[in-house]
Amino acid sequence: MKFEFVTAPADTDVLAVLVRDERAFSAAAAALDSAAGGALAKAAAGGRFTGAAGTSLVVTAPAGVEAGTVVLVGAGAEALDDLGVEKAAATAYQAVKMSGAQTLTLDFSDFTAEQAARAAFAVRLAAYRFDRYRTTEKVDKKPSVNVVRVVTPDLRASEAAHDALSAVADGVIFARDLVSEPANILYPAEFARRVKAYESLGLRVEILGEAEMEALGMWTLLGVGQGSRRESQLAVIQWNGAAEGDQPIAFVGKGVCFDTGGISIKPAEGMEDMKWDMGGAAAVAGTMVALASRKAKVNAVGVLGLVENMPDGNAQRPGDVVTSMSGQTIEVINTDAEGRLVLADALWYTQQRFKPKFMIDLATLTGAMIVALGLDYAGIFSNSDEVSDAILEASKKVGENFWRMPIPDIYNPHIESKIADLKNMGNGRAGGSITAALFLQKFTNGVPWAHLDIAPTAWTNKSPSPTVPEGGVGFAVRTLDRMVADAYEG
Ligand code: BES
Ligand code: MN
Ligand code: ZN
Question: For a tag site, which of 24, 210, 236, 241 has the least CB within 10 Å?
């Protein structure tokens, strides 16, 4: 897809203009309507289209208009904020993407240059499609729009604003691709290689293999990968956009490239979903790409625990006791509660090596998170009001839903083992996401920390908004990028 900013619409198949609530035409829409002799207002008045946000009306072949098709895009009643612009632009794209039209022009001439840039960004996110493995799909079943132009009041200003947004879209799309890849293609070493390829942006990427992790004593992470033919990896990504020695912020991701459950094997039905059990690591990788790509003025670290959880003659058994890098011992009651074992060592390593201002881990950690919040919210567990408030505030601006959950000490006894320091699950199913978070907290060494359980939101089978197509979501990349931009860039 090609994106261009222009100062006037020309030579386009589709022209999209915005209409506010109660059929209040924007200046561009009103001008087009008078060129069409009132045909657009008539079309709107003749049906249910009122300009409500998220709605649109496609008007074909209006006389007096150069474009073959006009889309009236609802922009709602509220003052048009960032999310309102994104929704309108993405709605226009969704309305015509399959129509056969190749060029779509969005007229933002009577909006700001920043809003015009954001419109292009939104269409890029909306048009994402993971179709790498579709070899026989007919052309007329694929989206037809391949050139998107946005009319802006100020070309230069839109292009500049678009550069930063485009960096964020690069990060989201990288994360979506990683989440969508099947596990035969995306195993730990391949994941690490794909991250390493972004060193061209100025990221530093170190990849630790099993021998290096053994030397560090990362036995809880290694235990999870022990049954796999694929070597476990720890990817350590650094972006230094601030002064040298400036204390970094850190992101840590669960990268279980496939989670069979191990010896505590999962039922067959739905197991294919566990290819996206690396959604936390993908979000961290995507965030680091976004930060580097827009040259964020921050020092940031991303640590990815990359493993495959398989049953095997050499796999970890229920009842095994492993020693973590922190020295704490863990009785593995259920090999399917593997994410916390991976994160235990990754978190400990991160705080010990980097002494970060704070750590945020991301993980598709528990099915219980889906039971608690449904599929539209991810959970935040945190020992720091400052960190969790910054995440919540940023998330609202970018349209990703989080809900803060409690991590009360009273549940600590649930993860006490009779023979080791800890066990890797609670008693039964009660508070399953909370006991998982309490477990992780034991490996934070008191550093300000937030744990984001994105099991509900990393993948979607039903598009939750026009900028988020079904499949891998790239969830949390936008929130983390925005949090850094608004609260931690010097
Ligand atoms: N990766 C799963 C959690 C998950 C489930 C993510 C569904 C996304 C969708 C995790 O490793 C897991 O299996 N958790 C267990 C924990 C239990 C054994 C304590 C679970 O949620 O059942
Ligand atoms: Mn599991
Ligand atoms: Zn898992």
Answer: 24
Nearest to 86 by CA among 134, 50, 33, 123: 123
Cα–Cα distance, 29 to 11 (Å, whole number): 17
Query: Does residue 353 have an active-site annotation?
Result: no
202-221 per-residue burial string, b: 16 or more CB within 10 A, e: under 16: ebebebbebeebeebbbbbb
Q: How far, in Å, from the CA of 340 to the mean position of ligand 3?
A: 9
Q: What is the CA(111)–ligand 2 centre distance, in A?
A: 48
Q: Residues near 216 by Cβ (< 8 Å), separated by ≥ 6?
A: 208, 325, 349
Query: In the chain, helix, strand, coil percent, each to 5?
Result: 40, 20, 40
Instruction: Render pLDDT for 322-375 as a digit per residue (tens, 0 to 9).
Output: 999 999 999 999 999 999 999 999 999 999 999 999 999 999 999 999 999 999
Catalytic residue, chosen from 129, 193, 196, 266, is 266
In angstroms, the CA 30 to CA 423 distance is: 66
Name the nearest CA neighbour of 16 among 109, 81, 100: 109
| Backbone torsions φ then ψ of 103, nearest 5 degrees | -110, 135
Distance in angstroms (rounded) separating the CA atoms of residues 285 and 269: 29
Angle between helices 279-293 and 188-196 (to 10 degrees): 10
pTM, 2 dp: 0.98
Atom of ligand 1 nearest to the CA of 432: 19
338 CA → ligand 2 middle, Å:
5
- Counting ligands in written order, the one closest to the CA of 366 is 1
Which ligand sits nearest to residue 262's alpha carbon?
Answer: 2
Q: Report yes or no: 29 and 49 within 8 Å, Cβ to Cβ.
A: no
Residue with tokens 């037809």: 144
- How far apart, in whole angstroms, are the C-alpha atoms of residue 477 and residue 280? 10
* Residue type, position 374, single letter: G
Residue 340 is among the residues annotated as catalytic for this protein: yes
Residues with beta carbon inside 6 Å of ligand 1?
Answer: 259, 277, 334, 336-339, 364, 366-368, 425, 432, 455
**Distance (Å) from CA 148 to ligand 3 centroid:** 39
